[in-house]
Amino acid sequence: MENFSVILVEPIYGGNIGSVARVMMNFGFKNLVMVNPPLTGIDAMKFAVHAKEIVQNAKIFKSFDEMAENFDLLIGTSAEIAGGKNFIRTPISSAKIGNVVNADGNIGLVFGREDFGLSDKEIEKCDILVTIPTDKTYKSLNLSHSVAVILYELVREKNLRGANLKKMKLANKTERDVMLEKFTELVSVFELGDFRTRLIRKTFRIVTGRSFVSGRECNTLTGVFRRARELIEKQKKENI
Ligand code: SAH
To answer: How far is the CA of 92 from the centre of ligand 1 (A)?
Structure first.
């Protein structure tokens, strides 16, 4: 799980930071990243128990954007979800997160503040949103408990797949970005205006994030979008 990081965005309580570090060590994860954490005090160390080093070695960033630059895939988490029109908060269930265990590149698991969670803007910058199904009378888990569930799911999937199962390589960031560009260029031939084009682009990004496309699938689709656009442009020219 070397390429996975647990990212805490503006955590408030040292006790939670320590508990997160502890559960990370329980499941074999080492990389803790924090955006604007409080000064790490005695509580963090006390709750970390044998995982103090994880807290001490945590990478700190001043802003979400600065942190995001270091990751190829960002997986946001939230109890506050929606469906239908609010596609930014349309999540997958934590039971499906195992799909990313073989992904290449740096993968960030993003957890929000104890009081406000993650903002819409931050969730929009994530490639996938994950929710842990809970009872609807009280959906929001303690921060370290939610980290425990997500890490458990990842390790469980890794063990289930075993070492000799054929790996499907997930698309990396560059492959996904190129596919998104080619898709957007194709959409632009319809001249729908900036607003609608942006909305369609966002929808496509969310849908492909949720479906764990492989590198090969990504390249195939990229080719289709590129050729479709070229064909339409050519026919447009011929009709003029
Ligand atoms: N009302 C806030 C509570 C934050 S709890 C909210 O849900 O947005 C702190 C963090 O724990 C959340 O930002 C999220 O990262 C994680 N978390 C808590 N409950 C969760 C759940 N049911 N599913 C996924 N993540 C959850």
So the answer is: 14
